[in-house]
Write a structure and sequence with these properties.
With 249 residues, this protein is α/β, with parallel strands linked by helices. It has one domain: TIM Barrel (Alpha-Beta Barrel). The chain has 8 helices and 9 strands. Strands 3-5-6-7-8-9 form a 6-stranded parallel beta sheet. The radius of gyration is 17 Å and the shape is globular.
Length: 249
């Protein structure tokens, strides 16, 4: 029987708010000021970090967008912004650890970055990357192989959001068979990306396919969305699954 055989959504009773403090670490966010579509200044960055602390997190690995076109964030740009953010965290006495990697867009330049080591990772060489939302890149499997050849562990950001796979469950299974880790955007469970993405996320949880849970937080609207997701039974199920790696990062 395949990984996704026989998975159907089931209605579950409402539950109390999930305890995000057991995760300890968030691994997907946009908190470095002024370098992508997340926090635009240091004041916004700190407001978000205070909110994350209030949700129970004691560490964030923030992941600015890195693209060939658009947000051309090199490791040097990201680490420079991280240094400034850490200095402000220390000045304010906020007890939260801040580290950084990046969310790499699969474009024509990503293979070069991987081969030349021009990437930021987290944990044990975990490399977070995202795909276009319109169609699956033809080079996806070859790039995953290249990442692994270079010693990286590919982490696919928010697989539940790629609508072109919603009716192609074997694609998810194929990626898992190739050793790709999956990262869920927490707010997908509240329907923030629409019902199909929510249902796919729930089915992937049922299949034990997620290893990482991330906020993908850009602004305070996302913080409020996270708060509105905490009572979802599927979130409780994922946190209680024992499969998440967040707490060890």
């Amino acid at each position: 029987m395949g990984l996704f055989s026989g998975l159907f959504g089931k209605k579950e009773p409402a539950m109390g708010p999930a305890d995000l403090s057991v995760l300890r670490c968030d691994i997907h966010s946009h908190f470095i000021p002024g370098i992508d579509d997340g926090a635009q200044n240091l004041e916004q960055s700190m407001e978000l970090l205070h909110a994350m602390h209030g949700l129970g997190y004691r560490k964030v690995i923030t992941t600015p967008h890195s693209m060939a076109d658009g947000y051309k964030n090199s490791p040097e740009i990201i680490l420079g912004g991280l240094q400034k953010l850490r200095a402000e965290v220390k000045r304010q006495g906020l007890e939260i650890e801040v580290d950084a990697a990046a969310e790499y867009y699969l474009d024509h330049d990503l293979e070069r970055k991987v081969v030349e080591g021009e990437v930021l990772t987290f944990g044990d060489k975990l490399l977070l990357f995202e795909l276009p939302f319109i169609s699956e890149p033809q080079v996806l499997l070859s790039l995953i192989f290249q990442m692994q050849t270079q010693g990286y562990k590919p982490v696919l950001a928010h697989p539940e959001r790629y609508a072109y796979w919603h009716n192609d469950f074997p694609k998810y299974e194929k990626l898992k068979d190739r050793g790709v880790l999956f990262q869920l955007n927490l707010v997908a469970l509240s329907g923030a990306y629409g019902r199909p993405a929510k249902e796919i996320a729930e089915r992937l949880i049922d299949a034990g396919a997620y290893e990482l849970l991330g906020s993908d937080c850009h602004n305070m609207n996302h913080v409020e969305a996270i708060r509105n997701t905490l009572e979802r039974p599927s979130l409780h199920k994922l946190i209680g699954s024992g499969k998440l790696l967040n707490a060890g990062l």
